[in-house]
Amino acid sequence: MDPHSQLLLEQFKESLPVYRKLKDIVLKLINDSIRKNGLFVSSISSRIKTAQSLSGKLELKGMKYRTITDITDLLGIRVITFYSNEVDKIAALAEQIFDIDWDNSVDKRKMYSHDRFGYMSLHYICRIPENIYSDPEMPELNKIPFELQMRTVLQHAWASIYHDTGYKTNVEVPVEYLRALSRLAGLLEIADEEFKNIRTDLDEYRRKIRTLVKNGSFEDIPLNGDSFRNYTELGPFDPLNEKIASINNAEIEKVSIRPYFEILVNMGIKTIGELDRFLRNNVENAYQLALHQIGGTDLDIISSNIGIQNLCIVHILKQGRGLEGLEWFYDQLYGKQPRNAQRARRTLQQAKKLAIIKEEK
C-alpha cells in the first residue's frame, strides 16, 4: 500500500469513535422518522467498513481519494422495505432529514436495460445537517458522508443470492448460468411488482369498505375481517352493553370481540347487512337474557363482549339448535373442554324463561 493510502487508513482508524457515534445517530433519526410517519419496514441494518476491507479498497484506488471523507461508504445504512413503492417513501423521509449528495447518489432502479440483470436499489450519499444534530465536541459528524441503501425484501434477496455466487458483474458470470440468473431476476422483479399491486388494491378495498360502513350502506358488504372491524368501530353493540350494565349499575370492562367474527361466519352470516339485522332482531331478547343472568346478583363489572355473546345465544336458540347449539357456541369461544356442556345447560335454563326456544332441529 502506498504512503497516501496508508495515511488514509490511519485516519480511518483514528476516526472510528466518530463513525460509531454517527451510526447510532443516523439509526435513531431514521427509526424515529419511520415510526412517526406510521411506516413499517422489514429491517434496518448498519455496518462500518472494517480496516481490512478498507485496505483492499485503498490498494486498488487509494489515489482517488484526497481525504478519508471522500470515501462515501465507510458507514452504510440499509433499509429493507416490504413493497417497492415504500422505497420512495423512505427516500422522501431521508430527503427531509439529511443533506443528500445528489452527484454521488444513484438510483439503480433506473439503470436497467432489457438485456441486463442485477438487483435494483436506491443509494443515497448523505450527511447530517447541523440543524438536525450537532456536537461541538465532534464537529466531524456533520462532515462525514454515509451511504443509505433502500431496497425491497425481494431486491435484497436477489442481491444476497448474486453476491453469494462470488461474481461482481454480469460479464464474469459463465454463459451457462447467465440465462438462469436472468430468469430468476425477472421472476423476482415481477413478484415485487405484483406484491405492490396487491397491497395497493387491498388498501383501496379497505378504504371503500370503510366508507360504505361509515355511510351505513351495509347490504352489499361481505362479512370479512376488514368489514367486521370497521363495523364494530361504529360501536353497534355499545347501547346493548350499556343497557345491560344499567341492571346493576356495573362498569364495562373493554375486551376484544374479534373471537366472535369466526363464530358469526360459522353461524351463516355473510354480509354486514345480515349482521346488522342479527343485532336489531335479537337485541331485546339479549337484554332479557342478561336480566336473568345478572339480575339479583351483586356483579358490578361486566365485559364489553356480553352483548354480542347474548345475541349469539339468542340467535342459536331461535334457530332451534338448543343445547347442542349452545355447546357448539362455547366450543367455538373457549375451545373444546368439559365445562362447555355445563355452561350450555346453565344458559339453556336461564333462557327458558324467555319463551324464545324453538324445538331443537
Task: Please tell me about this protein's structure.
It is a single chain. The protein has 361 residues and is α/β, with parallel strands linked by helices. The chain has two domains: 192 residues, Beta Polymerase, domain 2 (2-Layer Sandwich); 130 residues, no CATH class. It has 13 helices and eight strands. Helix 1 packs antiparallel against helix 3 and helix 12 packs across helix 13. It is elongated. The protein starts with a helix and ends in a 10-residue tail after the last helix.
In CATH terms, what is the architecture of the largest domain? 2-Layer Sandwich
> What number of domains?
2
Helix-strand category: alpha/beta
Strand residues, percent: 5-15%
CATH classification, class level of the largest domain: Alpha Beta
Task: Give keywords.
361 residues; 13 helices; 10% strand; 8 strands; 6-stranded mixed β-sheet; two-stranded parallel sheet; elongated; alpha/beta; Beta Polymerase, domain 2; 2 domains
Quick recap of the structure?
The protein is an alpha/beta fold and 361 residues long. It contains 13 helices and eight strands.
Write the layout of secondary structure elements.
Blueprint lengths: L2 H12 L1 H21 L6 E6 L2 H11 L13 E7 L2 H14 L1 E2 L5 E2 L14 E6 L18 E7 H13 L9 H40 L10 H8 L5 H8 L5 E3 L6 H7 L5 H23 L6 E3 L2 H13 L3 H13 L4 H13 L10
Parallel strand pairs: 2-6, 7-8
Antiparallel strand pairs: 1-2, 3-5, 4-5, 5-6
Helix pairs in contact: 1-3, 2-4, 5-6, 6-7, 10-11, 11-12, 12-13
